[in-house]
Amino acid sequence: MLAARIRGAARLTILTGAGVSAASGVPTFRGPEGLWRQFRPEDLATPEAFARDPRLVWEWYAWRREKIAACRPNAAHDVIARWSGVRPRNGATQGSDPGTERLKVVVLTQNVDDLHVRAGTRNLVRLHGSIWELSCWNRCATGAAWRDERVPLPEPPPRCPRCGGLARPAVVWFGESLDARDVGAAVEATECDVFLTVGTSSVVYPAAGLVHRARERGAFTAEVNLDETPASSMVDLAIHGPAEEILPAL
Ligand code: BJW
């Protein structure tokens, strides 16, 4: 049913969360093995936490960067990359999957691991930023981010190369606004034929509200997740299973 919907669609929007990277070995946030079982978000993922103890926050991010650096995109990232219109990561000269030639795909991700980038996904909006980018805590030079992929990071906490002040991970913490352009692109992408939400607990806003908006605008909505989420009862189709198996099967 979902495959037929996607085949018939002109515009497909996919919203992804930590569950998409779980099979790659990236820890999720919620659930039995989730990061929030071990750590409190208010101690590590808020501007107040960083202001209080930047070294502690950086130690946590440095640990996560090391874990993520050892991870590779999995079959779910690969399928999403293919649908977004690129050649597969192995460089084979295949085109898009049959029936998807005219499909316009927008991928909205809450993940900061950049595994979608490494899989070659096009039209990607990183709603919560990237763990591989840093920005100036003092917002010198308008707070523009720079890329720093060094693992391990020498002498955390790292410094801003422009003003010498503290650098921070260029991710979106609780209580912080998402980039207005990213929100605009995400809202625009809710104007679609099929809206697919994959591997997200659907509890963190504003991302969690996008599937509702897509449905209001007439999209066929579907969820792929191991478990029930607050979105399960409102989507047109909820498929329970691992994204790395369901997406290739689709
Ligand atoms: C599988 C699988 C497999 C496993 N296959 N599935 C409106 C209402 C209520 C509250 C708010 C609201 N608007 C704003 C808020 C406040 C807040 C919020 O939403 N709070 C709620 C938690 C209550 N939002 C914000 O503060 C946001 N800012 C904002 O809106 O600014 C304006 C504003 C501020 C304050 C008030 C009002 C307005 C910013 C949110 C930033 C979130 N940041 C984090 C950390 C990013 C940096 C980092 O990584 O360190 O983003 S928190 C964390 O949660 C991370 C994730 O991107 C995000 C979502 O998590 P996700 O991806 O869904 O992961 P999990 O672990 O929760 O779920 C994984 C799922 O996968 C599970 O369901 C599994 O079953 C499944 N799964 N393996 C398929 N193999």
Would you kindly provide a written description of the structure presented here, covering whatever features stand out?
- The chain is α/β, with parallel strands linked by helices and 250 residues long.
- It folds into 2 domains: 1-26 and 73-128 and 178-250, TPP-binding domain (Rossmann fold, 3-Layer(aba) Sandwich); 27-70 and 131-171, SIR2/SIRT2 'Small Domain' (2-Layer Sandwich), CATH 3.30.1600.10.
- The chain is built from 11 helices and 9 strands.
- Helix 10 links the parallel strand 7 and strand 8.
- The site of ligand BJW has 36 residues, from helix 2, strand 8 and helix 11.
Order of helices and strands: HEHHHHHHEHEEEEHEHEEH
Using only C-alpha atoms, the radius of gyration works out to 18 Å
| Unreliably modeled segments | 86-94
> What is the count of β-strands?
9
State the shape.
globular
Q: Give a quick account of the main beta sheet: strands, pairing sense, barrel closure.
A: 6 strands, parallel
Examine the secondary-structure arrangement and name the CATH architecture of the largest domain.
3-Layer(aba) Sandwich
Ligands bound, unique: ligand BJW
Strand order of the largest sheet: 3-2-1-7-8-9
Number of domains: 2
Distance between the amino and carboxyl termini: 10 Å
Instruction: Give the mean pLDDT.
Output: 93
How many helices? The count is 11
Structural class: alpha/beta
For this structure, what is the CATH homologous superfamily of the largest domain? TPP-binding domain
